[in-house]
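Continuing the batch. This is chain 6 of the set; chains 1 through 5 are on the previous pages. Same settings as before, nothing changed between runs. Recording input and output for traceability.
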Amino acid sequence: MMTNKKVVFLDIDGTILNENKEIPASAKEGIKSLHENGYYVSIATGRSPDHFRDIIKELEITSYVSFNGSYVVFNGEVIYENPLNTKDLLNLEEAALNREHPMVFLNENELFANHPDHHAIHESMGSLKLKHPTFHQSFHHVNPIYQALLFVENHETQWYEQNQRQFDYVRWHEKAIDVLPPNGSKANGIKEMLKKLNIPVENTIAFGDGLNDIEMLRYVGYGVAMGNGVKKAKEVANHVTDDVSKDGLYKAFVDLNLINELK
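Output for chain 6:
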């Protein structure tokens, strides 16, 4: 369908959005220029679709890899779903509750917490400018869950990695980790979109900053890490640009000759 076209995959937090959760004007103009230059632009994020609808509307983007690869939409159509196994998820929740670690459960439209008011949920969700989700005891029992959040500090993560191996875990906040399907990653979601686009991976460029971007940056044809990114992301990237707050996304577009420098 688009064999010769090139695709740009953009992370959201720390890549499109700065530390104030705002889109720098230069990034917005740069993405507009990508469209004008014929690039196909897609989001690749750990976020739920419900938490970036305003962003893609503003940027005129219609395709995305969300939930770290577990829910993929191409031009508004769902093309891939990989929900967490319900039985395994309930086993994980039981273990977490026994250790007094709350959880949040998300599908494409809703999210609920299994604790009515927890400081770790407030702090970590607040860092994304999101509110503490409403308490619901059984939402995740009867609905497909594409991602869960487990609120646990760094020194306790290893216990889950060793004793709850039915899932993969990626830290996104000092008090929170994402719960992913086994071998789940943005790279897997990108593979599914490329099948739909009929585009070889060599024609892809990805931009990211976090631990959940590492597999994506390795997989695509060319990976770009933000200057504000974690060390491991920078180590696997082909190129490291400036911080998001210093027009890093726009500078990378120019440096890689994706767009012409705006006057």
